[in-house]
Amino acid sequence: MTRTVGVLLRDKILLQEVADLAKCFDMANLLAEGEIYRLVSFSRSAGEVFSFATWLTCTAAHGIDDLPEDIGVVLIPPAERSARAAADTDFTEFFLSRTDLRRVCAWGNGVVLAAACGLAGERKIACEPADVPRIMLLGQNTAIEPFADSCHSGSLSTWVGSSRARDVVLALVEEDFGPAFAQELARRLGVMDRMEKLVAPAPSVRRKTPVDRVQDWVRENPQGDLSVTALAKMVSMTERTLSRTFKDRTGQTIGGYILGIRLGYACNLLSTTDRKIKEVARLSGLGSQANMRQVFMTKLGKSPSSYRTSLDGRVSGEDRL
After folding, report:
1. φ, ψ at 142 (rounded to 5°)
2. Residue 3's beta-bridge partner residues?
3. Would you identify the CATH topology of the domain 3-193?
4. What's the CA gap between 177 and 50, in Å, rounded?
5. Which CATH architecture has domain 210-312?
6. 3-state SS, residue 162
7. What is the DSSP string of 180-243?
8. At what angle do helices 254-272 and 210-220 cross, to 10 degrees?
9. DSSP conformation class of 47
10. pLDDT tens across 19-73, in order?
11. Which of 16, 199, 223, 225 makes a 20 to 30 Å CA pair with 25?
12. pLDDT tens, 194-246?
């Protein structure tokens, strides 16, 4: 029996992830000596054009109105951070109408789209720290699993990270055909990787760009001095050049990125520890307790203590404690 899997396309979707999905499913078919998986692409309408880069575009094979009825799994790969946000209204209606889907898999910032379509609901999810505020703003009772690499809750599976195509396919294969088949598939994919490295010229190791270094530093030091002045000095750039380059590469301002990381870090501390609010504010880089409360009220619509209570049902103390 062939299982049809739909890949949801959107602007600036990560091409490597789509290619890896195709490679992994092709290997699964080869291992099974028959077509056990069929991959189809879709978006709001058939023929909708999407850009992978400034020089490459693709079109969706199907729209949500003509999607094959036998699709049982939908995959939502990540897109570049600078991509325009996908309108979720049509997709929300689609997922509400397709209650027959046995699984939806999302990873990277694809998790944000899944949540915006109402797929997360009161389920548990794994997501990037920078995406926590965007998901919390949706006003759902979604439980974000702090520090989790992946999470499988009901029919929704989510992964942290943008390069998880192989993990997604192996999880589906194990669910459909058992661990032994999945382990053999993983072994063959590993052999293929080693063979490709032997016959292909060794790629030059990609050096981290100044933007990469800034992002790494922010993630590792949310409580540190993250002023544009300090960050620009660290990567030997002018403040103006760094700000412009960061916005071009990520679609976010440096300040917006830093606030997202700090807010996500604070949310993780509130949900996984019993630290006092003022200590969480200090460790997350949000400064004073009053400033942290203002950020939470502005971004999430609730105070830090209310956020903590909404996650685990504990009796809320005053934010001033």
Report:
1. -75, 135
2. 37
3. Rossmann fold (3.40.50)
4. 34
5. Orthogonal Bundle (1.10)
6. coil
7. HHHHHHHHHHHHHHHHHHHHSPPPPPPPPPHHHHHHHHHHH-TTS---HHHHHHHTT--HHHHH
8. 30
9. T
10. 999 999 999 999 999 999 999 999 888 776 666 655 667 788 898 888 888 999 9
11. 199
12. 877 776 665 555 578 899 899 989 988 999 999 999 999 999 999 999 999 99
Distance of CA 205 to the CA centre of its chain: 25
Alpha-carbon separation of residue 114 from 124, 159, 178, 210 (angstroms): 12, 12, 26, 31
Q: Where are the alpha helices (DSSP H) in the chain?
A: 15-32, 89-97, 110-116, 132-136, 165-177, 179-199, 210-220, 228-234, 239-250, 254-272, 277-283, 289-299, 304-312
* One-letter amino acid of 235: V
Q: Where are the domains of the chain?
A: 3-193, 210-312
Model's pTM, two decimal places? Answer: 0.71
- 3-state SS class at 67: coil
What stretches of 33-164 show up as alpha helix (H) in DSSP? 89-97, 110-116, 132-136
Q: What value does the CA radius of gyration of the chain take, rounded to a whole number of Å?
A: 21
Intrachain domains 3-193 and 210-312 with the same fold: no
Tokens 């999880």 found at = 171
